[in-house]
Amino acid sequence: MSWLDHIKSSPVAHLNKHLDEPVKKKKKVIKARNDCPEVVKMHWDLKYWCLEKGYTLEKEYRFSKRRFRFDFAIPELMIGIEYHGLNSEKSGHTTLLGFTKDTKKFNLAVSLGWHVLAFTVLNYKTVLQEVEKNISNKNL
Hints:
The chain is an alpha+beta fold. It has helices at 3-8, 37-53, 96-111, 127-138; strands at 58-62, 69-74, 79-83, 115-119.
């Protein structure tokens, strides 16, 4: 006799009715993030640079109580880094509403003391040079 049959035949079997019901698994909705090659390159360039210099690189960093996030941030230096995927099918940066939201985010970040660096497919390879230029301008 299996353990399940034993439980079903017990005097308290009515308490175990749920054992006959099929297990319903909740579907987890995991939103896969398929970063474009430019974002992946920026991430690893910044990651290695930060490790070398002793800084922390944060991805999808929320910099205020509002829901605004930077694509990347180096919190110790208060540098936010944004990639505008203008070529992407799902880019919110190409609409008037999306671009306006970006300007609100940038203005809020600057008012909180952040330095925001923005990149596109044409200049994303210069991310490390721009970060270092920004650091030297701030005399850190």
